[in-house]
Amino acid sequence: MARIELKDVTMVYGGKGTAVAALEDINLDIGEGEFVTLIGPSGCGKSTIIDLIAGLKFPTNGSVLVNGKIIRSPGPDRGVVFQDYSLFPWMTVLDNIRFVLRNKNGNANSAAKYLDMVGLSGFAKNYPATLSGGMRQRVAIARLFAMNPVAFLMDEPFGALDALNRIYLQNLLLHLWSRERKTVVFVTHDVDEALLLSDRIVVMTPSPGRIKEIVEVGFPRPRCRTTLISDSGYTGMRANLLNLLQEEMLESLSRQSSFVPEGAHE
Amino acid sequence: MNRTGIILILLTILLLLVAYFLPDAEKQQVADKNPYLSVLFVLMIVVLLANFPKFSGISPVQKVNDVGLLIFIALMFSELVFAKLAVLDPFLFPSPARVFLALFKDIDILLDGLVSSITLLAAGYLLAVITAIPLGLITGWKKRLFNAAYPFAKAVSPIPPTVYLPYSIVLLPSFKAASVFVIFIGAFWPIFVATVYGVFNIEPRLINSARTLGLGNLELMRRVVLPAALPTIFSGALIALILSFITLTVAEMIGTNSGLGWYIEYEHQFANYDKLLAGMLFLGFAVVSIMFVFDRVQSYCLRWQKV
């Protein structure tokens, strides 16, 4: 498990004159075993934060620390799941998992165990191209658990899936995570997904990317979708989050064009 | 058995009858017609087997029949126009029976030639494969190296490989070495350029995803960059192979005393056009077989791609 800290992180793309601030003054402290969701309109830098923690990008100013150590490169201690391209298309499903076990004394049996965990034992010899998007993400999750990192970084992992598959994968992730509470940083733009999964929701605002508000989600675990939706606190929190996001959306819209949807200002 | 199959077999029988019973033109007469008739017979058997796929395992039936139909048209045309009517000069346009007889008589020389040709081809081509792919991977990966090397590659790669032949003959100890070198040069550039482009066009998110696994540079190259670039590398390798056939035969025609290119050139000097055509036919078979092997290797290596 890992504690993840972002201290005064600023991120600027491009050189002088064309510089675009992607992140500004980000301070975020994620505790061990905490599930934190980043939510916000596109361009708010939520994926950039994942890249920073993963070590794929480096902040212009400030520091990103995992367990007190500054991140200098990507490493297998932080497992990442992207929306797509997480798996190697030229390896079978089983080989994809075996590959992350290669330096541990993992063999075919333990790789198969992880595949079984996501209910895909029957597809061990399939290539990813022959699987549906939902199945591919299930394999990606199995691989994530096989890697056994201290932190899970998930960049809109269910963003490209249909509603049913998304529900299935959210439940699967919750179930697996409840057995092994890793620190999770999860990016989404789906408010219900954020409420179902997280301990805290970080609402972000674009250009430059900043943290607008951090919302505590106090629902007891294990959570169940149906009881959660009928909770009176849920509805209020959902409305609050949607409001925050809508403000953001309207602001960025008015910055981009003069068109403002009817009834937007009540 | 489908209709095309039945028609094709009837047509082949007709061709057999025409070839056997109708008299040849005076200058197209041949001592031994059996090689040609056997070839026709074998063709007919293949078509017959293909039309019972459950029994023979040959598939797809339609493709075999359509290809068979084209072969039939070509053979029937040459049988009538060259052998029977001798519309064109029989000296320059030998009948199919004469060509197949020449093929049959010279089969030992042709097989020796095939071995010699394939040795040169394999040496030059494989040398290109094992050098161009690693160099291409590094050049595509390192931006600075690419910027330095690419203008050079762009200037040198369009030079026809055969241009190097005279100079290589002077510089290298044997003609065989010169041929291998020229085949190598010709095959190198298409594979190199394709590899560089293959690396360029790798989805960046795939590379990022791989880097999050904490791979070392060598492992990243071998397990991620190479397989990701492989589809593009294969398209370059195919062009290189086709170019190699050209380079090989030209090199053989210029200076060796073995090989299929040499055979064709040699028989040309004696105006044995039946043998020349037999050599071309044999060369065609050889090329088709090599391409078949290439195709198999490609589909095996890229079996992970969506079909």
Characterise the protein shown here.
The complex is a heterodimer of chains A (266) and B (307). With 266 residues, chain A is an alpha/beta fold. Helices cover 36% and strands 23% of the residues of chain A. Chain A has 8 helices and 10 strands. In chain A, α4 runs parallel beside α5 (163-179). Chain B has 307 residues and is mainly alpha-helical. Chain B has helices at residues 3-21, 34-50, 53-56, 61-84, 96-105, 107-141, 143-156, 165-171, 175-200, 204-211, 217-255, 260-269, 273-301. Chain B is flat, with a radius of gyration of 24 Å. Classes of the chains: A alpha/beta (266), B mainly alpha (307). The A-B interface holds A 51, 54-56, 73-80, 82, 84-86, 88-92, 99-100, 127-130, 147, 153 and B 203, 205-206, 208-214, 223-224, 227-228, 230, 303-306.
Q: Helix share of residues of chain B?
A: over 70%
Question: Number of helical runs of chain B?
Answer: 13
Separate helix tally of chain A:
8
Rg of chain A, alpha carbons: 19 Å
| Chains forming the largest contact | A-B, 29 and 19 residues
Assigned CATH architecture of the largest domain in chain B: Orthogonal Bundle
- Quaternary organization: heterodimer
> What is the mean predicted local confidence, pLDDT of chain B?
92
Give the amount of beta strand of chain B, in percent: under 5%
Distance between the termini of chain B: 28 Å
Largest sheet of chain B: none
Low-confidence region ranges of chain A: none
- Give, in order, the helices and strands of chain A: EEEHEEEHHHEHEHEEHH
Write down how many β-strands of chain A occur, each being a DSSP E stretch of 2 or more residues: 10
> What would you report as the Rg of chain B, rounded to the nearest angstrom?
24 Å
Domain unit count of chain B: 2
Strand content of chain A: 15-25%
Helix content percent band of chain A: 25-40%
Q: Order of strands side by side in the largest beta sheet of chain A?
A: 6-7-8-3-9-10
CATH superfamily label of the largest domain in chain B: MetI-like
